[in-house]
Amino acid sequence: MVDDTTLEALYDYPAGLDAPFVQVNFVTSADGAVAVDGVSGGLSSPADKKVFALGRDLADVVLVGWGTARAERYRGLKRTETRADRRARLGLSEVPPVAVVTPRCSVPPDSPLLTDTVVAPIVITAGSSDPAARARLADAGADVVVAGEDGFDPAAALAALAERGLYRVDCEGGPRLFGDLIAADLVDQLNLTVAPLLAGGGSGRIAAGPGAAPLRMELASALADDGFLMVRYRKQGR
């Protein structure tokens, strides 16, 4: 691995953004599994976790699907000395909010995303979701955003984040959210860690959902540590 200064320079967002730049983070086994025993932690490594944490440090907002947030037991992001120092130096807010995508507005008001956080979460849902559920989340302190009527509209969601000045978007999955972003051609960068493991069948791939025309990406960097390969693919022209 390279030193922290070089790593930050590699993974930082483009300067002067006036529209959302979406980077998506995933770890996969060498044979394509996205999880072990239902969670991604079994595929990770210290180097992968460092890159993952850096993605949060550099972001205006962390975007995640509710299925992933529930399975991985998400809470609000916490203040840490390293994050606070880096974010202050880069002129970012002290802690980025978590924006969770849930078309049916399934996040319960007592979720740790709302009860264990220093920044109010953003709940992105569809207009067809239960208005009472949206009201309960708003009363619990969430910033509730309707993005799409009958289902999730990724472009509308990113527009809502942009209205809040949140351009540096760090998407942490899951596969359905990633698939929706691909189908809408809204992925600017993929940060992918390939673990030196064979997990066998039983796990899905990193993207799921509607098919899409293949999108050409450019290899922006590749790092190796203890057999783990960490690559960045960036959309051409971004």
Q: Mean pLDDT, nearest integer?
A: 93
Strand order of the largest sheet: 5-4-3-2-6-1-7-9-8
Instruction: Please mark out the parts with pLDDT under 50 across 5 or more consecutive residues, or reply none.
Output: none
Proportion of helical residues:
25-40%
Based on Cα principal axes, name the global outline.
globular
Return Rg in Å.
17 Å
Q: What does the largest sheet look like? A: 9 strands, mixed
Distance between the termini: 25 Å
Q: Note the run of SSEs as H and E.
A: HEHEHHEHEHEHEHEEE
Query: What count of helical segments does DSSP give?
Result: 8
Share in β-strands: 15-25%
Question: What class do helices, strands and sheet pairing give?
Answer: alpha/beta
Instruction: Count every beta strand, where a strand is a DSSP E run of 2 or more residues.
Output: 9
Topology, element by element:
Blueprint: H1 4-11, E1 21-29, H2 46-57, E2 61-65, H3 66-71, H4 81-89, E3 98-101, H5 112-115, E4 122-125, H6 131-139, E5 143-146, H7 154-163, E6 168-171, H8 175-183, E7 189-195, E8 217-225, E9 228-235
Parallel strand pairs: 1-6, 1-7, 2-3, 2-6, 3-4, 4-5
Antiparallel strand pairs: 7-9, 8-9
Account of the protein in words:
With 238 residues, the protein is an alpha/beta fold. Strands 5-4-3-2-6-1-7-9-8 form a nine-stranded mixed sheet, with helices on both faces. The protein is 28% helix and 23% strand. The protein contains eight helices and nine strands.
Compact description:
The protein is built from 8 helices and 9 strands.
